[in-house]
Design brief:
Largest sheet: 8 strands, mixed, barrel
Number of strands: 22
């Protein structure tokens, strides 16, 4: 009996599914090809066509790879005819989920996502002829490799339409929100601008053709498949809880947080919160510990993540002490001052008066009594410098979080940036 070709196609697909493979292992759009179905370091790959912009060694590089319509060729190494949206789809086809870009306005300063290798090959070259994309970059001061190694973080660009919003960045050398791939370190644009340059030996031939191959990070077989690890750190009156653990001492909590990198090669994105009854001085001590672990991120893997709803960013408790002196501030946010022993705070407005001759303004203050948190938003809008969304909080170190939380909750929609200065010594 004759069988139609449809029958045989259906049968072939059925057999493929039965043995756990996928018939179609290639995804193709203009300028980008993705493959999947292998194992380990060959589990997937995404190849992107690229051509040099013409910049030579020593040129400042903000973007190793941009879209054709970016307009940032004067600070980029390569351009690609592929659309950012198609590269994002190719990564999804390969099985890599998007992370999240850095977003300082959300207090998310680290780019989140799985790390990937990025290798530059001549258009017809074999894999062995490649060179890591990061090695096309150099540290301007030392001439050596840029910090962070050869890997990039796949953020996926978040909600940004990278083809039409921002600099058209596919790969960025700083923490750009609207990019598909970011560097695996803290690198705010203002902090690192000019420090990343084109390395010696880069091609400035705009007629040359290359392909940039993105592939999985090489991880130990015993490690978890995903590098990103969300960790909840909670400060209780009895100690620090890591992911719901029993309360730990600061030293033991530090060991627990660092274990994710030590034992599993993971990045611990730590969300920090605390109980209402916890004293503010204890919150500051925990924040100081967390900040020290983040400073040693290359060994601990600890990264302070955005705070959970209802809490300020951990480093709000670690302000620059000189800002207690109004004359040393760059601007004059309103102050919210809590009294010893509890009770409603006082809102302090600080005005600058310039006489046209002095290099420093004359400062004056106005104190505004408060009775309830719901009155605070309108008073902040009326008394804060225009466009300044910061609030300086002064409170006793031995006050409980519950005493100031309702006031910060009321201020947060209009003044999310807080700096909390603590006075006095905590009760034993």
């Amino acid at each position: 009996m004759k069988r139609s070709i449809v029958f045989f196609l259906v049968a072939a697909v059925s057999v493929a599914v039965a043995v756990g493979s996928v018939p179609e292992e290639t995804f193709s759009r203009p300028g980008v090809v993705a493959r999947r179905g292998g194992a380990g370091e060959a589990a997937w790959s995404v190849e992107v066509e690229a051509v040099p912009t013409g910049l030579g060694a020593g040129a400042i590089i903000e973007f190793p790879l941009i879209t054709l319509n970016s307009g940032h060729e004067y600070e980029a190494l390569f351009r690609t005819p592929a659309r950012a949206a198609d590269i994002r789809d190719a990564m999804a086809f390969a099985g890599l989920r998007s992370g999240a870009p850095a977003s300082p306005s959300d207090f998310r300063f680290w780019p989140r996502g799985e790390r990937v290798r990025a290798t530059v090959l001549p258009a017809g070259g074999a894999v062995g002829e490649g060179r890591a994309l990061a090695r096309f970059l150099a540290d301007e001061s030392s001439g050596g490799p840029v910090p962070g190694g050869d890997l990039f973080v796949y953020t996926g660009g978040g909600d940004f339409d990278v083809d039409s919003v921002g600099p058209g960045s596919i790969v960025s050398s700083y923490n750009e929100p609207a990019t598909l791939f970011d560097v695996p370190r803290l690198a705010a644009q203002g902090d690192v601008y000019g420090s990343v340059v084109a390395a010696k030996g880069v091609s400035a031939d705009t007629n040359a053709s290359f392909r940039i191959v993105f592939a999985p990070e090489l991880r130990e077989s015993a490690w978890p498949a995903r590098r990103v690890r969300d960790v909840a750190l909670r400060l209780l009156p009895e100690g620090l809880s890591v992911d719901g653990s029993a309360p730990l001492s600061p030293a033991d909590a530090a060991k627990a947080l660092a274990s994710f990198r030590r034992d599993g090669g993971q990045d611990a994105f730590v969300s920090f919160s605390w109980d209402d009854a916890v004293l503010l001085g204890d919150v500051a001590e925990a924040a100081r510990l967390l900040s020290a672990l983040e400073e040693a991120e290359d060994r601990t893997g600890v990264r302070i993540d955005a705070p959970p709803p209802g809490f300020p960013y951990a480093k709000a408790f670690l302000p620059r002490d000189e800002w207690r002196d109004r004359a040393k501030r760059f601007s004059q946010p309103c102050e919210l001052r809590f009294p010893e022993g509890g009770g409603a705070p006082t809102l302090v407005r600080v005005d600058e008066t310039w006489d046209g001759e002095s290099l420093e303004p004359e400062l004056s203050t106005e104190e505004i009594a408060l009775s309830a948190p719901d009155a605070l938003p309108a008073l902040l809008r009326a008394n804060s410098p225009e466009g300044l969304r910061a609030l300086l909080v002064f409170a006793p170190a031995d006050a409980a979080w519950s005493g100031i939380a309702p006031w910060l909750d009321a201020a947060r929609p209009t003044h999310p940036v807080v700096r909390i200065f603590l006075d006095g010594v905590r009760r034993p």
